[in-house]
TrEMBL record:
CDD domains: CcO_II_C. Residues 1-51, 60-79, 314-353 are annotated as: Disordered. Belongs to the cytochrome c oxidase subunit 2 family. It comes from Sphingomonas astaxanthinifaciens DSM 22298. It comes from the Bacteria. It is found in: Cell membrane; Membrane. Keywords: Copper, Electron transport, Membrane, Metal-binding, Respiratory chain, Translocase, Transmembrane, Transmembrane helix, Transport. The keyword Protein biosynthesis does not apply. This is Cytochrome c oxidase subunit 2.
Length: 353
């Protein structure tokens, strides 16, 4: 015969196990049809809406903008949204292409003039000139000047690219076969895992598949990297297995991810939106299925996203973790009180015998 007081002490021990075994969420009844439905308060009031007020709101991810941060069929570079990207794009479009076109036209003109001027019909007696100082100086000096004209802005661009300002946020980018992981050491060290979303006909039943709101085919992911707009973000790039490459065309960023090596790059994006890239280093059978999606949001929305991921903002005091031993700790004052019913029941049991 078990005393009533002992039965009262064993009951709370089984409750957490039963609660843990019961699935949570709207599909709980379907997952466990034999479970006894919990009692509900039929009266609409504070108790009916209390769980909703405690639930964390879902983060509202942005929809991609066609032609921004993704391929759109153009022959040239994508629009750039970082200071380094805008400088590099202007250098490419306004100087390199113009210089290449001018050199090509000059060579073509010289070639056409030589063909017409020194053909057999117009020049039956060929010249026997073997040395011309002016021509030799010209074809030596002009290429040197062209190289100097390319080198000066190139060195300036490299200096800007590899001399980053102080970072406001650091993200560790880790390449894996064949997905990416992003760690936020400045925000509590939480990590997100990013995989490509499959098409509706390719995804398993009941799993998430790509929609137009997620992004283009082969570029949409289930977890986007989120960064704040107007902040300097430093990427520390590495790999867990083979060589990958973290490439984001709209940011003018392409950094190899090597196992055992930490490479560094940075971006500063002012325009909120969604931007897409891919692994740009052959890394195995599914190399073409390692997309990168970065969403740029306002600092306020970034703080909201960090909180929803369980992280903290720099300078914020994290909430104190609950003490797991508090439920099983018995205070000295409560110990005699809890034992009294058991002791008092012993004489009664003896009298009954």
């Amino acid at each position: 015969m078990v005393p009533a007081a002992a039965q009262g002490q064993q009951a709370p021990t089984a409750a957490p196990q039963q609660a843990a075994a019961t699935p949570a969420g709207p599909n709980a009844a379907a997952a466990n049809p034999s479970a006894t439905p919990a009692a509900t308060d039929p009266t609409p009031g504070a108790s009916a809406v209390a769980p909703a007020t405690g639930a964390a709101p879902a983060f509202d991810y942005a929809k991609p903008t066609p032609g921004i941060g993704q391929p759109d069929g153009r022959a040239g570079l994508q629009d750039q949204f970082t200071p380094v990207g805008r400088e590099a794009s202007a250098f490419h479009n306004n100087w390199l292409l113009v210089l290449c076109a001018a050199i090509s036209l000059l060579v073509l003109a010289l070639l056409v003039w030589t063909i017409l001027r020194y053909r057999r019909g117009a020049n039956p007696t060929p010249s026997r000139t073997s040395h011309n100082t002016a021509v030799e100086v010209a074809w030596t000096l002009l290429p040197v000047l062209v190289l100097v004209a390319i080198a000066v802005p190139s060195i300036r661009l490299i200096r800007h690219q590899y001399s980053p300002p102080p970072a406001d946020l650091t993200i560790k980018v880790v390449g894996n076969q064949w997905y990416w992981t992003y760690q936020y050491p400045d925000n509590g060290g939480f990590e997100i895992v990013s995989n490509m979303l499959k098409e509706k006909g390719e995804a398993a039943a009941g799993t998430r598949f790509r929609t137009d709101d997620d992004g283009p085919r082969l570029l949409a992911v289930d977890e986007r990297m989120v960064i704040p707009a107007g902040k300097v973000v430093k990427f520390i790039v590495t790999s867990n297995d083979v060589i990958h490459s973290f490439a984001m065309p709209a940011f003018w960023t392409k950094t190899d991810a090597n196992p055992g090596i930490l490479n560094e790059t940075w971006v500063k994006v002012d325009r909120p939106g969604v931007y897409f890239g891919q692994c740009s280093e052959l890394c195995g059978a599914r190399h073409g299925f390692m997309p990168i999606a970065i969403e740029v949001v306002s600092p306020e929305r970034f703080a909201q996203w960090v909180a929803l991921k369980g992280g903290t903002m720099p300078g914020a005091t994290p909430a104190a973790a609950p003490d797991s031993t508090a439920a099983t700790t018995v205070s000295p004052a409560a110990a005699p009180t809890a034992a009294a019913p058991a002791n008092s029941s012993a004489p009664a049991a003896g009298a009954a015998n």
